[in-house]
């Protein structure tokens, strides 16, 4: 590891969560470790007009509202390799996104792999989006890591159905099942972990070339405007930037920003990273511009 490349806050972040070997046998322990690290990594987030757990057409979700009845809304899918994460691990981030943007946020507690592999997580996010369309005048989709994958897939499916969303917000997205990663394993997220996640989400027999598994294989024309945030020291960095380049080449408005010296999913860790607040501000600014 080249420590000179790593922001000092990223060094702290790498020591904050207790790392448990990622195996099926220890999955409950791994999930618990992510939840236990929330106070140190994320914090509590700002108070909002209302925060309520809701049933989004059969999908558990959390509805963050800033007070304006006619506010547009962002559907948010949490990260965690389709395996980890939940409403509580991403509560602080959703609060910050709502407060900074003025948009309502619907965080989706989709079914997780390996208990519920593809297509269950995609189906849940898509079903929750249908509920959100009835609750808000304008909707966008977003997520981080594996949640960004789900957001990109649902955005494309909405376009194909003739019901496009206003935008897609993709934070450190996991998009390429080929897993052609740069040599950055030492900085947090490991190739072996991503292999575990992909195998849990899309086990043998699933066609990973399908655009629902590989958004890079989809026709990008006519997709909604995108904000793509990547981290310099993240093995997923290049595939996020390739996706942004594909969108841009197809004429889709794109803002793509690589944050230097930080590692995977820094944006969620608002108690540790100054860059997380900058990224939230950038995302919020893009969403506010859509509201004009």
Give a quick rundown of the structure:
With 292 residues, the chain is of the alpha/beta class.
Task: Characterise the protein shown here.
By secondary structure, the protein is an alpha/beta fold. It has one domain (3-291): Alpha/Beta hydrolase fold, catalytic domain (Rossmann fold). The chain is built from 9 helices and 8 strands. It has helices at 8-14, 27-36, 38-41, 91-101, 120-135, 146-160, 191-201, 237-249, 274-291, and strands at 50-56, 59-65, 73-77, 104-108, 139-144, 168-171, 226-233, 254-263. Strands 1-2-4-3-5-6-7-8 form an 8-stranded mixed beta sheet, sandwiched between helices. Helix 4 (91-101) links the parallel strand 3 (73-77) and strand 4. The radius of gyration is 17 Å and the shape is globular.
Which second-level CATH architecture applies? 3-Layer(aba) Sandwich
The fold-level CATH name is Rossmann fold
Main β sheet profile:
8 strands, mixed
CATH class: Alpha Beta
- Uncertain stretches: none
Question: What class, by secondary structure content?
Answer: alpha/beta
Name the CATH homologous superfamily: Alpha/Beta hydrolase fold, catalytic domain
Order of helices and strands: HHHEEEHEHEHEHEHEH
Strand content: 15-25%
Distance between the terminal alpha carbons, to the nearest Å?
Answer: 45 Å
Helicity level: 25-40%
| Order of neighbouring strands in the sheet with most strands | 1-2-4-3-5-6-7-8
Round the mean pLDDT to the nearest integer and report it: 95
Number of strands: 8
State Rg: 17 Å
The rough form would be described as globular
Please count the helical segments. Answer: 9
Our count of domains comes out at: 1
């Amino acid at each position: 590891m080249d420590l000179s490349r790593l922001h000092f806050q990223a060094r702290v972040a790498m020591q904050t969560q207790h790392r448990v070997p990622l195996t099926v046998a220890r999955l409950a322990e791994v999930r618990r470790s992510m939840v236990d690290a929330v106070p140190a990594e994320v914090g509590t987030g700002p108070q909002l007009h209302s925060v309520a757990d809701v049933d989004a057409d059969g999908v558990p979700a959390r509805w963050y509202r800033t007070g304006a009845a006619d506010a547009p809304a962002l559907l948010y899918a949490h990260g965690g390799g389709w395996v980890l994460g939940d409403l509580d691990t991403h509560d602080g981030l959703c609060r910050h996104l709502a407060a900074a943007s003025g948009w309502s946020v619907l965080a989706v507690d989709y079914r997780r792999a390996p208990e519920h592999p593809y297509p269950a997580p995609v189906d849940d996010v898509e079903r929750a989006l249908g509920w959100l369309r009835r609750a808000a005048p304008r909707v966008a989709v977003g997520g981080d890591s594996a949640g960004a994958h789900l957001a990109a897939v649902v955005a494309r499916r909405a376009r194909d159905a003739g019901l496009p969303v206003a935008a897609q917000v993709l934070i450190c997205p996991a998009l390429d099942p080929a897993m052609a990663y740069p040599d950055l394993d030492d900085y947090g997220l490991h190739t072996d972990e991503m292999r575990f996640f992909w195998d849990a989400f899309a086990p043998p027999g699933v066609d990973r070339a399908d655009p629902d598994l590989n958004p890079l294989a989809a026709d990008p024309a006519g997709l909604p405007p995108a904000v793509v945030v990547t981290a310099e020291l993240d093995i997923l960095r290049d595939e996020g930037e390739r996706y942004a380049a594909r969108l841009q080449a197809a004429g889709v408005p794109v803002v793509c920003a690589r944050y230097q010296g930080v590692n995977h999913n820094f944006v969620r860790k608002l108690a540790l990273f100054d860059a997380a607040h900058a990224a939230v501000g950038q995302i919020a600014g893009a969403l506010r511009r859509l509201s004009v």
